[in-house]
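Proteins fold reproducibly. Next comes an illustrative record:
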Amino acid sequence: MNRIITGNIGEQAAAAFLQHSGYKILAQNFRCKTGEIDIIAEHCGVIVFVEVKTRRNTLFGSPAEAVTHKKQQKIIKTALYYLNMIRKPYGPCRFDILEVFLVQHQNPSCNHIVNAFGS
């Protein structure tokens, strides 16, 4: 399984997990000049920007460890673009990481890290 397929499976699993948890998906793979956000959702009046990281194993660390400070800054800039250009006016927001683990012959499992980072 190549990394594009792995990523797509992970993002589908993450979106299903969020919807099952009561989140309303507003956008997936939102792209603009500053970067990309995997999932933008709303939950209890809060806009949630979700970075999805999918792994088949943890040989190179946890999925969340791949969301470096530089990556976080890109996500924050992209979220600001979304809020200022698309979602005016807006209320509270936060940044989550959703780890998806793909283990052969098992359903994907998710670990939702709420408010994982912020500015």
The chain has two helices and five strands. Residues 18 and 24 are 8 Å apart (CA to CA).
